[in-house]
Amino acid sequence: MSPTPSAPPKKKWSWRSQAFRALVYQIVAVAVIALTVLYLANNTATNMRARGIQSGFDFLSGSAGFDIGESLFAFDSGEPYWRAYLVGMVNTLRVAVVGIILTTVLGTLIGVGRFSHNGLVRGLCRAYVELFRNIPVLLQLLMWYLLFTEVLPAPTEPWVLGPLFLSKGGLNFPIPVWATGHVLAAWGAVAGLAAAWAYRRYARKVFEATGQAKSLFWVPLVIVLTGTLLGWLLGGAPTAMNVPFKGEFAVESGGSLTPEYLSLLLGLTVYTAAFVAEVVRGGIQAVPTGQSEAASALGLSRGQTMRLVMLPQALRVIIPPLTNQYLNLTKNSSLAVAIGYPDVVSIANTAINQTGRAVECIAIIMLVYLSTSLSTSLLMNWYNARAAIKER
Helix, strand or coil for residue 355? Predict the structure, then answer.
């Protein structure tokens, strides 16, 4: 029998090639989008010139002319607008980063609590989820703000909780007097983190080779603490503290967190943690029941089963929706303007009122949130790839 003739190969640049047609369609789509954006930008610029409205980002180098009530570094009203935006962006990141950490811890605890054998714990966790996820986040921010500004005592008569002072003026707490020892302690902590990471890799390889389990939490924690302690000792072991005290009109000295920051942080954390709890619960339920039964057959306690068997497997299901909640928390921080917290949106609103550059200021806000969201997505996608099952 003569061999069956094979089909003639398609030409790479022929319209009959599916890959070539897909490439053409993509080029056309990108061109249409680019032309649309150019048209809108040109039309906007033309209309603004016709109405005598100034445009451009040259205003960023001009003097801001306003003070910012809260910032991690000093800001004077005579400094340029770009530095004011930098302060606003740092204030936004302060809330987003700390909020993500607290939300992860609180949401995980509540999600795991939904599986407790204790009916009271289960009920409280469920009540928390149903209550806080069904109240709009803006109302929760206002609730926390009213709590701090109306219910708490005046700054002249704060609640004293050990070294802490809580009042309408915010939370005051002791802070160390900065010295060389603190710098070396920070470097020691960085070195300890690197050593702990190396130890965890070593412990995993030993477990895979011999089945002998080593501590992946306590030993790394001791390594980090040891590195920090050694750096602190090498730097002279400074112990001086800047302790707050009750002054004539307010609490003075020490570190402080304003009512606006606390209201925003608590509101976003409590709200988002309710959604994270449901994500954790769904991830745990996605793990086959046979896994927990096998763990029980091996003699593991419920806590060990949850920590060593269920949560590591559920992590692969949890990470993608958890990323969405992190992004939601970061973007919801823009509601800070409602309670007077000076985030990047608040700074932009003030700049718009002073300069009239609405398009430019809004573009800066969009760029800030786009950058933070994409950075969060990239980090979580990298972690998701590490946690995914590696197929052969």
Answer: helix
The two structure tokens encoding residue 349: 């609103």
Mapping DSSP onto H, E and C, the string for 79-141 reads CEHHHHHHHHHHHHHHHHHHHHHHHHHHHHHHHHHCCCCCHHHHHHHHHHHHHHCCCCHHHHH
Q: Chain-wide mean pLDDT for the chain?
A: 88
Find residue 160's DSSP bridge partners: 165
Task: Please state whether 179 falls in left (phi above 0), alpha (psi between -120 and 50) or beta.
Answer: beta
Alpha helix ranges (H) inside 15-80: 18-50
Q: How many helices (H) and strands (E) does the chain have?
A: 12, 8
Burial 220-235 (b: 16+ CB within 10 A, else e): beebbeebbebbbeeb
pLDDT in tens, 332-350: 999 999 998 999 999 999 9
d(CA 274, CA 109): 11
| Lowest mean pLDDT segment, chosen from 22-36, 165-179, 251-265, 304-318 | 304-318
List, in order, residues 6 or more apart from 64 with CB less than 8 Å away.
77, 78, 79, 80, 81, 83, 84, 351, 354
Closest-CA residue to 81 (of 92, 68, 94, 70) = 68
Spatial distance between the Cα atoms of 34 and 41, rounded to a whole number of angstroms: 11
**Scanning the structure block, which residue is given the tokens 């150019």?**
38
Three-state DSSP at 392 gives coil
Distance (Å, rounded) from C-alpha 217 to C-alpha 338?
Answer: 41
Q: How far apart are CA 124 and CA 114, in angstroms?
A: 9
Q: ∠ CA(144), CA(146), CA(148), 5° rounding?
A: 70
Q: What is the pTM of this model?
A: 0.83
Contact 330, 96 (CB under 8 A): yes
CA atoms within 13 A on the CB side of 371: 9
Torsion, Cα 168 171 173 179, to 10 degrees, reads -110
Reported as a pLDDT band with limits 50, 70 and 90, residue 391 is low
Contact 321, 275 (CB under 8 A): no
The answer to whether residues 105 and 276 touch, using CB atoms and an 8 Å cutoff, is no
Backbone angles phi, psi at 378, to 5 degrees: -60, -45
